[in-house]
Structure formats: structure tokens, C-alpha cells
């Protein structure tokens, strides 16, 4: 193996190491792939974005619908108190960002990133005619089209198609069990990497909602056991399901090839680098640690995709939400510190998102139902710290069906990242122009 | 009346496709037997009788010791002083968790065993479809008993009327927990179940309004779960909650749902939803896609929906109609259906004639391949199709394929297989072990200072847990069939690829795998089998 380490798919094709050095037998589909690559190479600037020092975007999906109102919280707001009699956080516990706004107490990691000047908080992010289905709304965020339109490709996939058509599949890496829908592209790109954690979800050691539930019918069953996470029904990522022009068999052949090439690349990059700060032991923390090593190890990857599930907090939200935010905040803080120590912080932006926020008014089961607009976080060396957009009004007259109204289209955030951070034109990717937000210096 | 296959169009290739898609594949003998019947008889015989004795339940259902032990321990706990009480509570919780983990493993193994039974395969495949359609996860339900109960519901009602099944699911305790129906009350209706009932189970997005959801959530209030009254006193099963209709939880006011107004309850909502035009299209398309691998385009879908309506939503005859429809075997779409991990594992074991791996190992293989039974990723179930395939899962299919075909004769080859980790996590090893890679590298935190003797012992135990002999292939090919690589490939492709056409380059790859020395030894036969299993072609059907 040492004589023939394969760096890229192109090199793999050039060197023509068929079979010999690979763990599997001769690829039967090589000629077809060769043809398509030649076709692409003819017209495209292959190295355009694949350098080892290009900018990187890390997307963190908070699956299930994060309660934005208890993440970025209005201080001294009567409407908030009224709507959240039990779930509302007290002003004294909130981590203040400015006199009117603060973060959930378990987000100390993000609060210090804000103090360090590396975190922007974009408030009131959403889209017109919001959809309250997890799947549909996730799809809208992934495809970045109007809520009454559909698309077979995702916004990240279209970025690959536009800016990296000759890149290796590992231009996008998802730490997940399925490729995210936003990766769906005309020419499939993106690989999965599960690190040493594997696909098996760690059954959490935390006490879940049901265990604390006072509902007798549930208690009768398991009064000692750990209950399911609130929102266990919405956990993992949603899949791509888009084949474009390929048959399933073509897709399999491609994937087989990508697997052979990129897994070697990844293993090599990951082994080369070390984390310079300790990470939390959570799955998310460990995934961030892996991403950091891949970045330090020189992977030519432009997009990393991670996710944290369990935000569908219909019942007994308080404890579950606190733990989730802590898991996120601590992992992100370690990641940012590690990147800084590596000298890579300036190249990396991290964006969080969730398919929707939650209903302003808490429900009678100590939880919140599906909502609409919510804040998101942008972090990184190039990010200009600050509060962007407006905290949406919580006055009942300003709500739509009980939900806050958006004031920043999520595609403005995408457009800003594409233009200011990844250095590409956003219109061909988002299919329309969107006003940029002032998230970069 | 829908188009049906003529007897003259029926051949071994189609019989092979049917056996794989309707169930979990089988042996060449089973394919031959189906090919010898008429298409309608073949399908009918695969489906089996409408009434069929259910399999014996998994043994844990009759366990009596664990509940008793828990009760005693809890009683003891209560008399302890405070600090000791907390410790005891933790221990009891740990015991409970371990018990459930063991029972879930047993349940998964039990179900896989049913799938591998030829006479049950078709029914179990349908049960698997419903498990994905009405996705419900242990992660939230936390009760192996209730998940078994739901699984039995799919098996029992799967061949019957769609409306009966939907109603059964709406009252199913596991579902009531999973989508919060059990907690929904008149004063605080929970929308979770009503939303997914429309969006995922019966209609599809865009075919209902938010108002329909809110009003339906009110109608479903009152349906909850409660303790059964000593049906099987003393046994754990008796302690399981069952469906309970509680009038005082019900919102008895008028509701307006799909344009109709009345004092509706859950039964009414199911009836109203299934009467929508979108309803038959939704389930028909999902069934077609699950079994055929691709979405039915408009003219075909229309035809299928008409058939469904004329059958009034009775599932067994609809499956018959679907599987005798010529489009089901469309050669152009032959490579468009990806085997699910469960189908892949059960099918491969049947084809190579070896029993399924131990339940803990099988369950872990499926988890690694993306289909942890009873823990679908979310309420939408598994996306299926090409979503099964990604760079990680395809490598694992190849690696597990190698393990199942060649065994663990060279465990060093399995370095990326995670077998050791699997064995550790699966609870197959009685002791708790540090995570060690097959090369002897300690992976897990906190185990770095393990002494070499302990480390070797741990490694040996892991190796023993995953030890597997090579697949028994002596009877797969006769001496005559081992005389040339063409003959051997013919025999193996008839078994593993139902005789599908193999592209020339792939033929070469398969034939070269066996080497040149004839007659081929068992080891050479296994090498060719492995080349087939480790090919994109084997992943589709």
C-alpha cells in the first residue's frame, strides 16, 4: 500500500492502479467514470476551490426544531414571561449579550466566543409561508427554494456543481449516517465519515423527559428507567433520495469508487493531526474533534456537515433543551479554540440552523409545539461579532398563528456565506439574488 | 382490471426477482419451484394463507424473574438511608436498562429469524414495510414488550383492510407513546400524532390544513394507555399498559375536519382521512416504491389506485395485483431497486446456506449498515433506495460480506470492520471490555494503561465472539460445475443474482476472483462468491 497511496480520484484514474493495491477487486465501471471525468475536466477549472488553504464551511444542523426563543432570549420582556410561565428563563440567569438580549445559561461556550469577537447571532431567521412539518421544512432549508417550490438538488449540492465540478467526492464530508439532503447535486458529491464513534447512537446517559413525567400511565411502566429523549421521533438527518440522471446501479458504482479513494484520504489526514484542546465526550464533541483534525490534516474538504438531534421538545422541554444546548455550546467552543490554536480559525465559518423555531406560547405538557422563525449562529475568525437582524416582536398582534415572524430570509445567510466566505457568486446557486447580511468584516 | 402477466411471460428470472422483492430471496430450488407455477399461483403461494399461525413469541415475554427482582430491590432501596438510596437507585436503573437492551437484542434476533423462514418471508417483508411506514422507535418508547406488540399488529392485520390497520396503529400503545397521544388531553391536545397521521401515514404533505391537524388532535384526545388489570397476573406481560379510552380526557366539543363538522373521535378522524382523494394514492405509491424500487409514474399509478379502490383497500389482493403487473418486472428499471440492509443480510445468509449470526451481531451489522430495527432514524422511517448507499455503508456491506462468506480465518483483514467494537457493544461479551482494534490498539479512553496480559485476554475474547467458519459451499457447486470459470459463474449467478445479465467487465472481475486452478476448491468458490457479493450489482434487485 505504501508505494501507491491514492490521493485523489484523478490520481487514482491516472495511475491506473487497478485492483492491485486496493482491497476490492477490479472496478468494472472505470471506463464510464473516466469518460465523465474527462468531460468535466475539459471545461472546468478543477483546482478552483480545492486548494488546501481555501475557506471552509461547517454546517451544524439542530434537528427537530430548536426553541429559538429559549436560545437567544429577550431580557425584561413581559410578552415572553406571559407566554412562557414555566419555561421562561429568569433575567438573572440569562447570559447577557446586550441590555435586551441574552443567551441560554447553558451556552456559556458561545457567550465567550461572542466576547472574543468570533460569534454573530442572526435573529428572526426564517422564510415566507413557513411550513410546520419537520420534513418539509428541513427540505426547504436544504433545497433553499421558496416554500411552495421543490428542487431535486440542495444548496450545498448546487455549490458543488457550480464551484467544484471536478473535485473529489470528499469536497463535502458529513459526519452522519446519511448524506444530508442539502448535498444532493447533479453530479453526486460528498462522503460520509463516522470517525471512531460509528453509526450507533450512544443511548444517552442523561435522564430523559419521560422519567420525570408525572403522567401515571407512563410511570406505571417504567418508574426507574430512563425515558426517551423528548422528541425522540425526530432524531437524525433526513436523506437525499435524489438520483438525478443516474440509475441506482450507476450510483452504487460511483459510491464504491468514492469510498475507496476518500476513505484512504480521510484516514491519512485524520492520523496526521492532533487536537490541541480537550473536547467534550459527547458524540457532537467527538465529531467536532474529528473535523478539526481533518482540517488540520489538510483535507481539501470545503463543507463539513454535522448534526445534533432531539430538539423536538413537545413535552418536558426544560431539562432536555438545556442539555442539548450545553452539548452544542461546549462542542462549538472547543472547536473554535482548537481552530484558533491551529491557526485555521480565519478559514473556517460555522453555521447552525434548525428547520424551525417553536411556538411562542408554551403548551400544557411543559413543552413547545412547532413554530416558525428562529435565531441562528455564525461563528469563525472572519465573522464579525454582533447581533444581526431584529429580535421578533412577541406581542400577540405581531404573531402569525402563534409564531414569530421572520425578518431575515435564511437564504440571505446562505448568500452571505457563499459570497463573503466561500468566494462564489450566490445567484447561480440560490437561483435568485438575496440581500447580504453584515456578518463578515 | 389491471394488466397482468401472461403465463408465457413468466420465467425463472422474474421468479427470482419476485422472491427477492416480495421476501428476502432464497435458494435456486425455491426460484425453480416458483418459476414452474403460473404467475398468479406463484404470487399466491408466496403470500401464503390469509390466516397463518403467528410465530411463537420471543422468550422474554414470559420472563417473570426480572420484574420480581426489580420490585424487591426497589422495596429494599426505600428503606435505605439517603446516600445509599441514590446509589441503589442508580444500580436499579442500570439493571433495568441492561435488561431492556438484552430484550431488544432478543426481539431483533427473533424477528430476523422469522424473516429467514421461507413460509413466513413474504409476511415478514410486509411487516418490515409497515414498521418503516408507521415508524416507531425504542429510543422513545423504551419498551421491548410494546414494540413486540406493535410488530405483531403489523403481522396480524398486514394482509387485511388498510383502514383496520390504520385504526389499529392509532390505538397502538407504542405509537401512543411515540407520538405523544398518550399524553394528549382535552385541555392540551398534542398535535404530534394527528400531524404524522396525515403527513406520513395516510395523505402526504399538502393534503390537509393546519386547522385539520389541530381539530383532529382534539378528536384524538381520550385515547391513551393504562395498566391492564392482571390479565396475566404475576407475569411481566401483565404489567404492560394497553390501549384505554378515557372519556374524561376527551374533548367532546364539535370539530371541523376536512370540511365536515361533528363531535368526532379518533375513529372518525381515521375514517375522514382515508376518505380523502389523496389517501389511496399515498399508500399505493409507497407500497409500489417499497417493492418495485421506483415511483410509479402517472398512468401506472392511476391504474394501481383504481385497483386499490376496487379492492376497497384490502392489502393481500392488492399485493397480488402489484406482483402480477408486468411493470413490476420492467427490465429498464431492473437495477433501480437497492436491497435494504435487512434484506441484504437475511438474503445473503439464505443464499450461502448459513444461519443468521447471533442476534447481537446481526443487530449490530444492521445498525452499521443503517437499519437498526425498532430504532428507525425518525418518524418518517428509513428513506430507502439509494439512501441506503453511501461511502461508509457500501464499504461495510463489502466487509460484512467478506466475514459472512470467508469467515474470520484472517481476522487481520477485518481491521476496519469494527467487529471487535461490535462484539463489545453487543453485550455478547459478558465482561465489560475496553475497546480494542483487532490489531491490538486500545481505542477507548481510560483503558490506555491496560497491562499487556489483560489486553491480550480482552482481544482473545473479542476474537472468539466474532469467530466464524467459512461459508459451507461444498454443495453449492458440483465437481462438474467446478471445471471452468464460466460454468461456476453460471451456477453462482443463478443463485446470487437470480441469473441477471452481467456486464462483460464484471464477468471478468468475477471469473478472475476464482483463480485458474480447476477444479475449483471450496476456497476458490468462496472467492468468486465474495467478488459477486462485493459488487454494485449484488446490492440491487
Give structural notes.
The complex is a heterodimer of chains A (441) and B (541). Chain A is of the alpha/beta class and 441 residues long. Chain A has a single domain (2-200, 226-430), classed as Alkaline Phosphatase, subunit A, CATH 3.40.720. Chain A is built from 13 helices and twelve strands. In chain A, the strands form two sheets. In chain A, strands 1, 5, 6, 7, 8, 9, 10, 11 and 12 form a nine-stranded mixed β-sheet that branches. The longest helix of chain A is centred in the last third of the chain and has 26 residues, at 317-342. The N and C termini of chain A lie far apart (46 Å). By secondary structure, chain B is an all-alpha fold. Chain B has four domains: 7-47 and 277-333, no CATH class; 59-274, no CATH class; 341-466, no CATH class; 480-539. Helix content of chain B is 53%, strand content 3%. Chain B has 24 helices and four strands. Chain B has helices at residues 12-22, 28-35, 39-47, 65-78, 82-115, 121-133, 138-141, 144-157, 162-170, 173-178, 192-202, 210-220, 266-274, 278-292, 298-310, 315-323, 341-352, 359-369, 391-406, 419-425, 452-466, 485-496, 504-513, 522-533, and strands at 223-227, 241-245, 255-257, 260-262. In chain B, the strands form two sheets. Chain B has a two-stranded antiparallel ribbon with strand order 1-2. A two-stranded antiparallel sheet of chain B has the order 3-4. In chain B, a hairpin with a 2-residue loop joins strand 3 and strand 4. In chain B, helix 19 (391-406) runs antiparallel to helix 24. The chains are: A alpha/beta (441), B mainly alpha (541).
Amino acid at each position: 500500500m505504501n508505494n501507491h497511496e491514492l490521493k485523489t480520484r484523478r490520481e487514482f484514474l491516472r495511475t491506473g492502479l487497478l485492483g492491485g493495491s486496493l482491497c476490492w477487486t477490479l472496478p468494472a465501471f472505470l471506463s464510464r467514470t473516466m469518460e465523465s471525468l474527462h468531460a468535466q475536466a475539459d471545461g472546468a477549472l478543477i483546482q478552483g476551490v480545492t486548494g488546501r488553504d481555501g475557506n471552509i464551511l461547517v454546517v451544524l444542523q439542530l434537528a427537530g426544531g430548536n426553541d429559538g426563543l429559549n436560545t437567544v432570549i429577550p431580557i425584561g420582556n413581559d410578552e415572553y414571561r406571559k407566554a412562557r410561565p414555566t419555561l421562561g428563563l429568569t433575567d438573572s440567569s440569562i447570559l447577557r449579550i446586550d441590555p435586551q438580549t441574552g443567551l441560554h445559561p447553558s451556552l456559556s461556550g458561545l457567550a465567550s466566543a461572542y466576547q472574543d469577537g468570533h460569534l454573530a447571532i442572526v435573529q428572526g431567521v426564517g422564510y415566507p409561508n413557513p411550513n410546520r412539518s419537520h420534513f418539509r421544512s428541513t427540505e426547504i432549508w436544504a433545497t433553499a427554494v421558496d416554500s411552495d417550490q421543490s428542487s431535486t438538488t440542495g444548496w450545498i449540492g448546487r455549490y458543488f456543481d457550480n464551484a467544484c465540478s471536478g473535485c473529489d467526492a470528499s469536497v463535502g464530508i458529513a459526519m452522519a449516517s446519511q448524506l444530508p439532503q442539502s448535498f444532493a447535486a447533479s453530479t453526486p458529491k460528498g462522503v460520509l465519515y463516522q470517525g471512531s464513534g460509528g453509526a450507533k447512537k450512544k443511548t444517552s446517559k442523561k435522564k430523559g423527559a419521560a422519567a420525570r413525567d408525572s403522567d401515571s400511565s407512563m410511570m406505571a411502566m417504567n418508574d426507574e428507567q430512563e425515558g426517551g429523549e423528548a422528541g425522540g421521533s425526530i432524531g437524525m438527518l433526513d436523506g437525499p433520495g435524489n438520483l438525478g440522471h443516474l440509475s441506482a446501479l450507476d450510483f452504487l458504482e460511483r459510491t464504491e469508487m468514492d469510498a475507496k479513494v476518500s476513505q484512504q484520504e480521510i484516514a491519512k489526514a485524520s492520523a496526521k493531526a492532533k487536537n490541541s484542546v480537550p473536547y467534550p465526550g459527547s458524540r457532537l464533541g467527538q465529531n467536532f474533534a474529528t473535523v478539526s483534525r481533518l482540517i488540520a490534516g489538510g483535507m481539501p474538504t470545503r463543507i463539513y456537515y454535522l448534526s445534533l438531534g432531539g430538539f423536538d421538545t413537545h413535552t418536558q422541554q426544560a431539562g432536555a433543551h438545556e442539555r442539548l444546548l450545553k452539548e452544542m455550546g461546549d462542542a462549538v467552543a472547543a472547536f473554535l479554540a482548537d481552530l484558533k490554536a491551529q491557526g485555521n480559525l480565519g478559514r473556517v465559518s460555522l453555521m447552525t440552523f434548525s428547520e424551525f423555531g417553536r411556538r411562542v406560547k408554551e403548551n400544557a405538557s411543559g413543552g413547545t409545539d412547532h413554530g416558525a422563525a428562529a435565531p441562528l449562529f455564525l461563528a469563525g475568525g472572519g465573522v464579525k461579532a454582533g447581533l444581526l437582524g431584529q429580535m421578533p416582536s412577541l406581542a400577540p398582534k405581531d404573531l402569525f398563528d402563534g409564531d414569530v415572524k421572520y425578518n431575515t430570509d435564511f437564504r440571505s445567510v446562505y448568500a452571505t456565506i457563499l459570497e463573503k466566505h466561500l468566494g462564489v457568486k450566490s445567484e447561480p446557486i440560490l437561483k435568485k439574488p438575496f440581500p447580504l447580511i453584515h456578518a463578515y468584516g | 382490471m389491471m394488466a397482468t402477466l401472461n403465463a408465457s411471460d413468466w420465467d425463472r428470472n422474474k421468479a427470482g426477482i419476485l422472491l427477492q422483492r416480495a421476501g428476502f430471496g432464497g435458494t435456486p430450488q425455491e426460484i425453480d419451484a416458483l418459476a414452474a407455477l403460473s404467475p398468479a399461483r406463484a404470487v399466491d403461494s408466496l403470500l401464503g394463507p390469509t390466516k397463518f399461525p403467528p410465530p411463537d413469541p420471543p422468550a422474554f415475554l414470559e420472563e417473570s424473574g426480572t420484574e420480581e427482582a426489580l420490585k424487591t430491590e426497589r422495596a429494599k432501596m426505600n428503606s435505605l438511608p439517603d446516600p445509599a438510596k441514590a446509589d441503589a437507585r442508580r444500580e436499579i436503573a442500570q439493571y433495568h436498562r441492561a435488561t431492556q437492551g438484552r430484550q431488544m437484542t432478543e426481539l431483533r434476533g427473533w424477528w430476523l429469524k422469522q424473516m429467514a423462514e421461507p413460509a413466513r418471508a413474504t409476511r415478514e417483508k410486509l411487516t418490515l414495510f409497515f414498521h418503516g411506514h408507521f415508524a416507531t422507535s425504542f429510543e422513545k418508547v423504551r419498551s421491548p414488550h410494546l414494540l413486540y406488540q406493535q410488530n405483531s399488529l403489523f403481522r396480524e392485520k398486514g394482509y387485511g383492510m388498510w383502514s383496520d390497520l390504520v385504526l389499529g396503529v392509532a390505538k397502538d400503545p407504542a405509537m401512543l407513546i411515540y407520538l405523544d397521544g398518550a399524553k394528549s388531553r382535552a385541555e392540551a391536545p398534542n398535535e404530534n400524532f394527528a400531524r404524522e397521521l396525515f403527513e406520513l401515514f395516510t395523505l402526504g404533505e399538502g393534503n390537509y390544513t393546519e386547522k385539520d391537524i389541530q381539530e383532529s388532535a382534539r378528536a384524538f384526545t381520550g385515547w391513551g394507555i393504562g395498566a391492564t388489570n392482571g390479565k396475566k397476573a404475576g407475569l411481566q406481560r401483565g404489567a404492560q399498559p394497553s390501549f384505554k379510552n378515557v372519556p374524561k380526557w376527551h374533548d367532546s366539543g364539535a370539530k371541523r375536519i376536512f370540511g365536515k363538522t361533528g363531535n368526532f373521535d379518533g375513529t372518525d378522524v381515521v375514517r375522514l382521512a382515508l376518505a380523502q382523494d389523496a389517501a389511496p394514492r399515498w399508500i399505493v405509491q409507497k407500497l409500489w416504491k417499497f417493492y418495485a424500487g421506483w415511483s410509479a409514474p402517472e398512468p401506472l399509478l392511476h391504474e394501481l389506485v383504481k385497483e386499490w379502490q376496487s379492492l376497497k383497500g384490502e392489502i393481500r389482493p392488492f399485493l397480488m395485483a402489484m406482483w402480477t403487473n408486468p411493470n413490476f418486472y420492467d427490465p429498464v428499471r431492473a437495477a433501480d431497486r437497492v436491497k435494504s440492509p435487512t434484506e441484504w443480510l437475511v438474503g445473503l445468509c439464505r443464499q450461502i446456506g448459513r444461519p443468521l449470526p447471533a442476534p447481537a451481531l446481526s443487530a449490530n451489522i444492521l445498525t452499521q449498515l443503517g437499519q437498526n430495527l425498532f430504532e428507525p432514524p425518525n418518524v418518517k422511517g428509513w428513506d430507502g433506495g439509494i439512501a441506503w448507499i453511501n461511502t461508509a455503508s457500501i464499504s461495510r456491506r463489502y466487509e460484512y460480506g467478506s466475514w459472512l462468506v470467508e469467515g474470520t480465518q484472517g481476522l487481520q483483514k477485518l481491521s476496519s470492520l469494527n467487529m471487535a467494537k461490535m462484539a463489545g457493544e453487543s453485550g455478547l461479551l459478558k465482561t465489560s471490555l475496553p475497546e480494542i482494534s483487532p490489531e491490538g490498539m486500545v481505542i477507548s479512553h481510560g483503558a490506555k494503561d491496560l497491562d499487556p496480559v489483560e489486553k491480550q485476554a480482552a482481544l482473545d475474547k473479542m476474537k472468539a465472539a466474532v469467530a466464524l467458519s467459512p461459508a459451507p459451499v461444498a454443495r453449492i457447486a458440483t465437481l462438474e460445475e467446478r471445471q471452468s470459470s464460466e460454468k461456476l459463474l453460471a451456477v453462482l449467478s443463478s443463485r446470487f443474482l437470480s441469473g441477471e445479465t452481467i456486464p462483460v467487465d464484471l464477468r471478468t472481475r468475477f471469473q478472475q476472483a476464482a483463480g485458474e486452478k480447476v477444479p475449483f476448491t471450496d476456497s476458490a468458490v468462496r472467492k468468486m462468491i465474495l467478488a459477486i457479493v462485493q459488487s454494485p450489482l449484488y446490492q440491487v434487485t
